[in-house]
Amino acid sequence: MTHTRNTPASRKESLAPDIGSLPARAVRAWTERMAVTPLGEGRYAVETHHDARYVVDLPRSRCSCPDHRLRGERCKHRRRVAIEVTRGRIPAPGLRAADCLACGRETFVPENTRLPLCEYCTYRPGERVRDRETGDYLVVAGTVDRRADEVGIESLDTTVATHPTNRAYDPGEPVVEVTYPGSDRHYSFPRSRLVRRPLDGRDGGSTATV
Ligand SMILES: [Zn+2]
Ligand SMILES: [Zn+2]
Questions:
Q1: Using 50, 70 and 90 to split pLDDT, how confident is the model at 19?
Q2: 123 CA distance to ligand 1 centroid (A)?
Q3: At 63, is the secondary structure helix, strand, or coil?
Q4: Could you tell me the residue ranges of all domains in the chain?
């Protein structure tokens, strides 16, 4: 028996909001020129086209504008912040914008992350990677939010950064923990020493990381 994936047909409809059917505050949230700046901990500054500045607290469902404070309404500023979060323009509460340490692209990471990596550059637990130095295949256990020069190597009086085989790698890189297939013992590597694509042998491991 074959399993054919049935893709449900999408309904014939516009994906943009039907402005005519929205409440007035929602229309203003979509159409007025506003700038939103994340302040951290779920708070956002909203600058309006009148140059007023209000602070929206998304987790507490609050805004400092009169519409919310006096009338208790779900004002256009709160709606605007929610729209921008949903569309990926600004980080959701608990996240912050940062440049990925590996590829430089802007990404959203948990607020307390010290060493940001984008989704693509993060090796997933269970993923097979290859060691550039030896060509060995390894299995990712997880990425540690600590620099190579902060992580000590058990039984050797060294850090991941100062280990002789890691001297060519940036001591500020995040450490990735791996195991050898069939073993439970964890080993720590600088992230860029590991590659996703198999090396073809001719380039001696000098291909780009990503
Ligand atoms: Zn408001
Ligand atoms: Zn990246």
A1: confident
A2: 40
A3: strand
A4: 19-86, 128-195
Instruction: Give 64-109 pLDDT, tens digit per residue.
Output: 999 998 888 889 999 999 999 999 999 999 999 999 999 999 999 9
Cα 34–43–93 angle (5° rounding)?
105
Q: State both tokens at 105.
A: 């692209």
Taking a C-beta distance cutoff of 8 angstroms, is the pair 204, 174 a contact?
Answer: no
- Alpha-carbon distance 163 to 152, whole Å? 9
Q: Which residues contact 148 (CB under 8 A, 6 or more apart)?
A: 159, 160, 161, 166, 169, 170, 171, 172, 173, 174, 175, 190
Q: Which residues surround ligand 1, an ion (CB under 5 A)?
A: 54, 63, 65, 68, 75, 77
Query: Are 32 and 24 contacting, i.e. CB atoms less than 8 angstroms apart?
Result: no
How far apart (Å, rounded) are the C-alpha atoms in residues 81 and 193?
Answer: 40
Burial bucket for residue 67 (CB in 10 Å: 0-12, 13-18, 19+):
middle
